[in-house]
Amino acid sequence: MKKIATLDHYAASLLVAESIADVVRTEKNACLGLATGGSMELVYANLVEFFEKDGVSFGRVTTVNLDEYIGLPPSHLQSYRHYMNSHFFDLVDIDKANTCIPPGMEAPEAALAAFQKFLGSHPRDFQLLGVGANGHIGFNEPGAFFEANAHIVTLDECTRKDNSRFFGSIDEVPRQAITMGIGDIMKASKIMLLVRGDNKKEALRELISHDRVDPRVPCTVLKLHSDVTVVYPEKLAP
Ligand code: F6R
How far is residue 114's CA from residue 181's CA, in Å, rounded to a whole number? Predict the structure, then answer.
């Protein structure tokens, strides 16, 4: 595992965006696994800037997102479809027909089956990850074992509390989501995890300070992948 400590979150986001742009330039029809959340806003802002100023084109890129809340329509300001459109897809030359986010308003089992099918037929060149304060990646919450495939998950109270900062109150935060499984995440050729926020310090320590893999801190599974880079501002270093 490669570890990169940067001056601050801006430098970390720029480095991650540059890595994504490299994949897009190198792979003719790149397939990117994408993440949402506060940690990623500057990554997408940088990618939009690369598109506008440096001519980086997303015209041949396919994307698939890690997760989506169940019960939020795409028009909802906190749905991940809305997030991706407003932070990235609407601002670059990507063909939205080539962007996959499980639909939160469809019958969950049907949406899940379609998501699993898409993942099975679109190997990812790159997977972008954030991490939850409880160590979750995607919405793979702490548990007794790792779930390999995409699945429907009941969100941890810790996750709902953390994410309530984007909603009016915790009662508005959905209780369930569809998420890629750990096995889906691990199938990507290259993985980059961007850590932002003092509340992630403990998860980062579990990830980079020793060799233990523990389903109670899901991000630790990344130690088993052969091409993972963890990027974090130096003030979070254990
Ligand atoms: C988002 C996702 C989550 C977030 C994590 C961190 O698509 O899968 O794992 O990356 O919850 O969220 P922020 O960046 O808001 O702290």
Answer: 14
